Each structure stands twice: as structure tokens, then as C-alpha cells.
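Reading group handout, session on sequence-to-structure problems. Before we discuss, look at one worked example. The prompt was deliberately terse, the way you'd type it at a terminal:

> structure N-acetyltransferase domain-containing protein

The input record follows.
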Amino acid sequence: MLDGMTKRFFQAEVLSEMQKKLKYNPDDMFVLLVVEPASPSGSSTSSSNGSGSPGVVGVVEVSYIGERETLSLLEPGTEGFCYVASMVVAPSWRRRGAAAALLAAAEEAAAAWDERQLLLHVYPENESALALYGQAGFEVLRQQSKPFAKTRVLMRKGW
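And the output record:
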């Protein structure tokens, strides 16, 4: 559980990063999708989960970007691509379909923007995420190593 000061700092950092992303992404080409547990009646709820915080199961951030290094790996003429910048599922909800639902929603967002592919990075030691993405149809484009940074695997799904 985060103490008050840590929680405020985290919220400020997230807000700051969100504002940067909104500033540097084209209009309507950024979305933060949230999964909440269904209420007993079957409708979505944003009520408390008993801990005083909203009952968020997971989130995924999707944006349209045009990063040159990655564009060089895609079909010639590709000007940009949809990218899953981050995805997280609460530990108590893992292995229950939430991550797959978030990925499907990310694909729907990309398709709504008339895009035909979705890219993401994952750390090679995150075996459960690699398995999830593989089952969802993502393929490895390449493993990326940069000085002073952790090695990451770039994955792509096209449709």
C-alpha cells in the first residue's frame, strides 16, 4: 500500500507523462483503456474495491507514433504505427483474461484509427508476457540492446 506522499508523487508523475504524451501525439490518436470488474448486476462499476481505491483491474496505453528506428523495420512507406506503450494488470487479476481483453481492446483502437498493426516492447525475462503476446498473434521483430538500458524484444501483430 502506498503512503499518501508516495501516492501523490506517483499520480503527479503519471499525469505529467500523460500530458507529454497528449502533447506529442496526434489528435485522437492516444487512448488509455481501463478494465474494471463488473458489478454483481453485470454492469461496469467504478466503486471502491474495499480498500478505498477504485476497482481497476488493468490498463493499457495505446498511441500512434512514428519513431524512425522502428519504422525502418516495417514495410517501406509506413509513416507511423500503433504502439502499446504500457500495460499492467493487478496481481490478483492475472491469468484471468484481463490482459487478453486489454490487448483485444488495443487492437480495436488501432483498427478504429484505420491502422493494420500493433507493436510493443517486452523484456525477454518476462516469460508470461511473451507467452501472452505470442498466443495473441504477436511475432518478434527483433531484440533491441542499447547502452545503459535493459534489452527489450520488439513484437508486432498485423491484420
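Points for discussion. First: The CA atoms of residues 140 and 155 lie 4 Å apart. Second: Helices lie at 4-24, 68-71, 98-112, 127-135.
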